[in-house]
């Protein structure tokens, strides 16, 4: 669809004739966790510093939209080091679309459930449905249907662990302040970033296999 399937990726790599890095799972998770955490802390920092004013100016949904745009604009680029081949532009299209899908679903689940007096249930619903669909979109776009369940699970677990750990900290009286907001950004970014990075690693399994086989053939020739 956007050229992230194994065949197109490998063909572009061969045509470029440039060295290709193949990061392992540990390296991928480290890069994704650190990078997305920095973005997340910046976005939660915006909430801590100007959240009240921005909500007054643009409304609650408008403020959520501002945060979403920030995540989409800055979040995709941090995963560039773990993308095999020169695929950042293509991945950005996928990241923006999938993050927008996740954000809309999470916000809708939360706001609808909150209207019914079940805000926490809405948070849980959004934290399961949104990341699961994001993971599914990753797997399908990379043409990695065999990694579908694994990608969905990684994003749901990573997102939920990061989000609700931060939520628990922020609920403490001593952390119900700006520092607690930043801490929430730290845990959210670390958990979600690790989940996204792991999903990307698994989505690129067939690309790694094709490139490894090609290198082995070249060495034996």
Structure characterization notes:
The chain is mostly helical. Helix 3 runs antiparallel to helix 4 (119-141). The chain has seven helices and no strands. The chain has one domain. The chain has helices at residues 6-16, 25-75, 88-115, 119-141, 148-171, 178-203, 205-220. The longest helix is centred in the N-terminal third of the chain and has 51 residues, at 25-75.
What is shown here, in short?
This protein has 7 helices and no strands. With 221 residues, the chain is mainly α.
Measured between the Cα atoms of the first and last residue, the distance is 34 Å
Task: Please work out how many helical segments DSSP would assign.
Answer: 7
Helix and strand pattern: HHHHHHH
Helix content: over 70%
Classify the secondary structure makeup into a structural class: mainly alpha
């Amino acid at each position: 669809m956007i050229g992230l399937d194994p065949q197109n990726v490998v063909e572009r790599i061969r045509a470029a004739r440039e060295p290709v890095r193949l990061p392992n799972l540990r390296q991928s998770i480290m890069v994704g966790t650190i990078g997305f955490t920095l973005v997340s802390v910046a976005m939660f920092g915006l909430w801590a510093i100007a959240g009240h004013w921005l909500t007054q100016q643009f409304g609650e949904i408008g403020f959520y939209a501002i945060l979403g745009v920030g995540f989409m604009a800055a979040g995709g680029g941090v995963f560039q080091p773990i993308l095999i081949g020169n695929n950042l532009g293509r991945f950005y299209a996928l990241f923006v679309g999938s993050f927008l899908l996740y954000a809309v679903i999470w916000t809708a689940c939360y706001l609808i459930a909150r209207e019914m007096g079940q805000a926490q249930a809405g948070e849980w619903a959004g934290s399961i449905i949104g990341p699961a669909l994001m993971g599914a979109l990753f797997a399908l776009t990379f043409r990695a249907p065999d990694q579908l369940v694994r990608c969905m699970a990684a994003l749901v677990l990573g997102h939920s662990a990061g989000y609700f750990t931060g939520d628990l900290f922020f609920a403490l009286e001593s952390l119900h302040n700006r520092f607690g907001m930043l801490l929430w950004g730290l845990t959210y970014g670390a958990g979600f970033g690790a989940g996204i990075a792991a999903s990307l690693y698994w989505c690129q399994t067939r690309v790694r296999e094709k490139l490894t086989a090609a290198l082995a053939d070249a060495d034996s020739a």
